[in-house]
Amino acid sequence: MASGGAFHRAYRRATQQGFLEAHELAFQYFGGVFAQIRYDNLGLAVRKILRGHQREETARFIAFRSHWGFRAEFCTPAEAHEKGGIESEAGYFRRNHWVPVPEARNLEERNEQLLAACRQDEGRTIAGREQNIGAAMRAEQGHLLPLAGEGFDLGEVSFPRVDGSGCVRVRTNFYSVPVKAGQRVQAKVYAERVEIWEEGRCVARHERSYSRQQQILDLEHYLEVLERKPGALAGSTPLKQWREQGRWPAAYDQFWEGLRRRHGQQEGTRKMIELLGLGKKYGYECLQQAVETALSTGCSDVAAVGYLLTAPPGPRAPVEGFDLGDLSRYERPLPELNDYDRLLSLEVVA
Fold first, then answer.
1. Mind listing the pLDDT tens digit for each residue in 147-184?
2. This prediction's pTM
3. Inter-CA distances, 186 with 33, 107, 157, Å
4. What is the three-state SS of 201-235?
5. Once rounded to an integer, what is the mean pLDDT over residues 254-267?
6. Is 5 exposed, middle or buried (0-12, 13-18, 19+ CB in 10 A)?
7. Kind and range of the H or E run holding 116
8. Is the previous residue joined to 146 through a cis bond, with omega within 30 degrees of 0?
9. What is the rounded CA–CA span in Å between residue 344 and residue 340?
10. C-alpha distances in angstroms, 111 versus 12, 53, 89, 154, 332?
11. Residue 316 above 90 pLDDT?
12. Confidence class for position 349, pLDDT limits 50, 70, 90
């Protein structure tokens, strides 16, 4: 409150994970931890309002503030004037940075806009003061508690068991995992993601769903199963979700169609699944570039894409020419493979 600085961040839902994460980001923004922080009586921190300013706090919030070393003070219910600073700040920020409401493609871009607006306000000088907010914040840092050596583990932990569909239930939704059915894993729920851990390593990471009874599936987790049952790929729910998320570019469909023309429906789909396995190894952005490059040359071959993924970047060094002399009489034109491709097509039709 001494400097007048403020930190703003947006979340899709008012969850305890987001509430605590915003604290840590604010501590980093201010360069330290305030010895005492004042709160409204929000349910994310308060279980029960007792007499006076006494509160029964949630166990998670007690653990969090103990980790960072600050004290919590709670306002009297329905007494907004006790936190007038934040009420005024919210109004000022809304009028000066959110009228009209700026457009953003996603939540990440929205928070970048908010952070930029906070930085912009550091240059503002509050009426009656000589220093601007940024200078006052730097002076204020000397009175703050030092940052902890490491952050608080913000994830809400549970230990679900993998079902027959290769999913685990976390809260009210089902998330896919590349783990055998029947095994118990560790699930960590954060503000915007869900992580699944097995034997100390993260085996799956999903965007958190705030709907109920939804299946959040990653096609990568089902590649081994689809290799045995390639016919299930075209109508599968994981493929549908990849399309909706923009993770299945049009180049994949074009390449898949070329594989089916050359090898037939089943074998061509199995080749496509093999191609997706390369994305799991080398990254899907690199795979998309390699597929588009192969298509630009008229090639629909998985081995060619694999070569493009492993070939050294940049143009090849030019090869110096030399005189063949008498050997020139053995020159022959480069072979054409069109006839071979037609033979394969006839075999597929047969």
1. 999 999 999 999 999 999 999 999 999 999 999 999 99
2. 0.81
3. 31, 27, 7
4. EEEEEEECCCCCCCEECCHHHHHHHHHHCHHHCCC
5. 93
6. buried
7. helix 107-121
8. no
9. 6
10. 11, 33, 17, 19, 63
11. no
12. low
What radius of gyration, in Å, describes the C-alpha atoms of the chain?
A: 29
Domain boundaries, the chain: 16-143, 156-216, 221-310
Residue 324: pLDDT over 80: no
The DSSP secondary structure of 85-108, one letter per residue, reads: HHHHHHHHHHHHHSSSPPP-SSHH
Provide the residue count of the chain: 350
Rounded to whole angstroms, how far apart are CA atoms 319 and 57?
74
Nearest to 55, CA basis, from 70, 36, 40, 67 = 40
- At residue 267 the predicted structure's pLDDT band, cuts being 50, 70 and 90, is very high
CB atoms within 10 A of CB 31: 14
8 A C-beta contact, residue 262 and residue 348: yes
Model confidence over 92-142: pLDDT tens digits?
Answer: 999 999 999 899 999 999 999 999 999 999 999 988 899 999 999 999 999
On whether the 16-143 domain is CATH 1.20.1740, my answer is: no
Of 149, 153, 145, 150, nearest to 36 (Cα)?
145
Q: Choose among 136, 199, 152: nearest CA to 2.
A: 136
Mean predicted lDDT score pLDDT of the chain: 91
Question: What does each C-alpha distance from 257 to 244, 264, 267, 271, 273 come to in angstroms?
Answer: 20, 10, 12, 11, 13
Nearest to 29 by CA among 38, 19, 21, 37: 21
